[in-house]
């Protein structure tokens, strides 16, 4: 028999204690796992019950929407385009420059026709007396809008107001004591929050999907003039447009507007923040045109280098390179090189945010602007002016002026200058001329070079559009034109 020393005995005792603890832990592990699983399932049940409760309360206020939209189209003669006019996936300038081997030519006679297209979507009731918010792209130019309530009643709606620049519209039905949704403060919404989307995708009424807020302040999508989209993983499909995006309090934080992809939900949907709707809702109810405030400054985002140069510790703020003469900004005392760091009590992080804040306010609104100037902050008071038409700001032509003009132009590229023997010349080249238009009767044809507008030399389409906009107020425009070896003037009437 072997003898066990005291040291060995202590060691053996330790092994025994450890082994006993391990056995106990192994015995208790299944019990612990089961308990954790039960807790997890209970938590999931609670989440599911919460979603079900929100959906049950919100769904009666969500409506189906059908609109008969009227579309006016131009088409070529059937002999020229038997299968319809070719689709140009690029803008005219790029398509002309890279894909057209033949010179621009005068098009065959065009005819207009009206086409009625049924559109389906969603809306949601915001007051018991029948006001409904939805997307502008559903009801714009609609001859008839029909709303289907949760109780299957179908009522004709009146379009009260629309705003294409935010893709928002307000309609109303003749009904009372309706279920309605409260509007939240979308500025308080945080990335990662749970949200529900309710709508009528593919005609499936009051479909509920869940997800989280993936991002805020999405822009650059090219969908609207003012973009500040909420991005969400809640499934949004065709027919969800105009429906509510709801938080866990059952309040609307956004209006579902767009998706990424042409085949359906990819887990990337976009909603207009409800605060954008709240800012213009009183005017929509009155049927007023949405006039927007205007400050009158050129602005740009700060880079780390610019921030350091001007003495700022971060890039939060918007730099002013130029203040427009006679503008609200100039009257308020803003100067070039000022950096706007606050607007009406809110920190300004980007040009996009500042533009949205200004555009949501009415002309005549008094605002407080804090600028960083010469190393110090300075508060100024400005009274916003009325924003000019977008066409004027962008230097493009309004639709009615384009139609009256009767032709379109593009920049004179090196390739076109060589093709038409305009080397060393400046101006814009005519691409298409409307048959029977004033321009055609005046002798303007595709391929001619416009060198001046009302005595002002023209170097590109932007300068051309700016001068035509000015001339449009007078009703006529004097064009200096070069055609082959000849240069001559054309006085073109712009009014009908």
Tally of strands: 26
Strand content: 25-35%
What overall form do the CA principal axes indicate?
globular
What is the helix tally?
Answer: 12
Largest sheet: 6 strands, antiparallel, barrel
Widest beta sheet: strand line-up: 1-2-3-6-5-4
Q: What is the mean pLDDT? A: 82
Q: Enter the CATH topology name of the largest domain.
A: Thrombin, subunit H
Classify the helix fraction into a percent range: 25-40%
What is the first-to-last residue Cα distance?
A: 123 Å
Task: Determine Rg (CA atoms, Å).
Answer: 32 Å
Architecture of the largest domain, CATH level 2?
Answer: Beta Barrel
User: How many distinct folded domains?
Assistant: 3
Low-pLDDT runs of 5+ residues are 1-13, 75-112
CATH domain class of the largest domain: Mainly Beta
Class derived from helix and strand content? alpha+beta
